[in-house]
Write a structure and sequence with these properties.
It is a single chain. By secondary structure, the protein is of the alpha+beta class. The protein has one domain: Ribosomal Protein L24e, Chain: T, CATH 2.30.170. 23% of the residues lie in helices and 17% in strands. A two-stranded antiparallel sheet has the order 1-2. The protein is globular and about 30 Å long. The N and C termini lie far apart (22 Å).
């Protein structure tokens, strides 16, 4: 799986779940965001 913002590969757990967060944009679609983008505050780009 890849981050929808930066395109970097996101690690998965043994149950194939991503180690990251899903964020909804203004249209209601879920976007996968890595932990690095969460810390840098780039989540605001998804919501717009």
């Amino acid at each position: 799986m890849k981050c929808d913002l930066c395109g970097s590969r996101i690690e998965t757990t043994f149950l194939n779940k991503p180690v990251g967060t899903y964020v909804k944009n203004e249209k209601g679609k879920k976007k996968l965001v890595c932990s690095h983008c969460q810390r840098s505050g780039r989540i605001k780009e998804v919501k717009q």
